[in-house]
Specification:
With about 500 residues, this protein is of the alpha+beta class. About 65% of the residues lie in helices and about 15% in strands.
Length: about 500
């Protein structure tokens, strides 16, 4: 709530701060004209308009945002107001400035005797026109221009807070940076230049009339206006630079986090221009990296892209759940002897070729390679992505693995005969490990049975054995031979063992 109050105060101060800019203008003109009455009148009028009258307007403009931040209600209305805040705040300041211009001209005609530096009745129309353009620029157009970038800078802080705290969606109404640059060029370049040209033209063609009603030197009038413009430009350049560089710094901070391996951050989308679009794309990129990092850390590198998309799309539960799964375990026959004969580099090359082939087959049939244990592969089906034909697909994968290992060689012409054990049943699936290293895996008695079945191949002289649970799921699809009931190590109950022939 303290942050909410602080944001509200900053908006109020930003809007009321326009009075300080006008106070500086009034003070500069006082130093030149030395007219206390005019100085007091203009200052009081500015205070009345930009402080007293401004306050209710500020309250009205900010009210939907304040209500949302405090109650989280009317989010749609608040979202629209947040996006439009710089624009409507600018229009409000312009309306106040225009009110001052109108009041100024009315005062010339209502209180002509109160004007000490010139006689309103003697002022030619061209001079009135030049004066009207100048005063409208300095007290209406320019303050609203400053207000736009002042509130735009404030709005970036507001949107940053809202983005982080409430996850507001990004705006779909994209603007162009070029429009803001064109506005800056027009307000700070074109209009002041036109005013100078107009002043010179008027003073050149109406010099005698000017000297009759104005005590101030014509050149001094132009110089004062230019000095005021320069003061305003310095302030404007500061705000404009901040409004353009602020969002970029936010993106750079996020990129630095990503470079250091932190994918949890997001950059607040605080503008609706190309930088805002870039920020949104960077956020989506980082989110994708975070999701893939999660998949890589959870399931390992060898995950089918289709499975990855399925996991991300369906928001798979990784905390732990009881599931029916089929476990496939492979092992290379005679690997110990092979590893003793081959140099380490050749072993690595041979295993990499072997694993690449087998992983591709397992993924093709919907399985996930959960881990490598030496020369063994531990793969799971129906977890975490559901597969109604998980047992059948596991056996198809096993048969294809057998075909590959029987028909081709790996490394420098090495045959790698593979033994496979498959079992189905209820397991506990989820993230398991320590706080800094988690691994998605399955545990349970059925997992141990699959491993024991793989080892039994050596006893029976077979290459593929399945448990009873798997057999019951695929008996109508594959030709299986019952090899008997075996007492597996670590189990009290006998286990029916089957050989898959085709």
């Amino acid at each position: 709530m303290k942050e909410v109050d602080s944001l509200k105060q900053k908006y109020y101060f930003s809007m009321l701060g326009i009075f300080l800019l006008l106070f500086v203008y009034d003070s500069i003109y006082y130093v030149v004209h030395k007219q206390v009455n005019i100085y007091l009148i203009t200052t009081v009028t500015h205070f009345f308009l930009f402080c007293v009258v401004n306050l209710p307007g500020i309250f009205f403009l900010y009210r939907p945002i304040d209500q949302f931040l405090r109650t989280k209600e009317n989010s749609q209305k608040a979202g629209k107001r947040i996006l439009s805040l710089p624009g409507i705040s600018t229009l409000w300041i312009f309306a106040l400035g225009l009110s001052y211009v109108i009041l100024t001209f009315l005062s010339f005609w209502v209180f002509p005797d109160g004007i000490e530096i010139f006689d309103p009745g003697k002022v030619p129309i061209p001079v009135w026109f030049s004066f009207a353009v100048s005063i409208t620029y300095f007290y209406a157009i320019y303050p609203s221009f400053i207000a736009f970038f002042l509130i735009k800078d404030y709005n970036s802080k507001l949107r940053n807070f809202v983005f982080l705290e409430y996850e507001f969606p990004e705006s779909k109404n994209h603007k162009k940076i070029g429009n803001d640059l064109l506005l800056v060029f027009f307000i700070l370049g074109v209009i002041p230049s036109l005013i100078v040209i107009l002043d010179i033209f008027v003073l050149t063609h109406s010099k005698k009339e000017y000297e009759q009603f104005m005590t101030l030197d014509p050149l001094m009038t132009i110089l004062v206006d230019r000095f005021v413009i320069i003061v305003g430009m310095l302030f404007a350049i500061f705000l404009i630079t901040k409004s353009f560089t602020g969002p970029i710094h936010s993106v750079l901070d996020l990129i630095r986090k990503v470079r250091n391996g932190d994918f949890s951050g997001r950059a607040a989308i605080i503008t609706d221009d190309e930088v805002g679009e870039l920020t949104g794309e960077v956020n989506r990129m980082v989110k994708g990296l975070q999701e893939r990092e999660l998949i890589r850390n959870t399931f390992g590198k060898y995950v089918n892209p289709k499975v990855v998309n399925h996991i991300l799309k369906d928001n798979i539960n990784l905390d732990g759940e009881v599931r029916t799964a089929t476990i496939l375990v492979t092992d290379i026959a005679g690997y110990t002897t092979l590893s003793e004969k081959l140099p380490p580099k050749e072993i690595v090359q041979t295993l990499n070729e072997y694993f690449t082939e087998l992983v591709g087959v397992i993924q093709e049939h919907g399985g996930i390679v959960n881990k490598f244990i030496g020369d063994a592969i531990f793969a799971i089906f129906n977890v975490p992505v559901e597969d109604p034909h998980h047992a059948r697909n596991a056996i198809h994968a096993a048969l294809e693995i057998q075909k590959i290992t029987e028909t081709r060689t790996f490394g420098k012409g090495k045959k790698l005969h593979t033994r496979i054990g498959i079992n189905s049943g209820v397991v506990l699936a989820g993230n398991i490990g320590s706080g800094d290293r988690m691994e998605y895996t399955v545990i349970g008695d059925e997992v141990n049975v699959a491993s024991r079945l793989e080892q039994l191949n050596k006893q029976f002289g077979t290459n593929l054995l399945i448990g009873e649970n798997t057999y019951l799921l695929v008996k109508d699809e594959f030709s299986c031979v019952h090899l008997g009931e075996i007492q597996l190590k670590g189990r009290e109950l006998l286990t029916r063992v089957y050989k898959v022939e085709s």
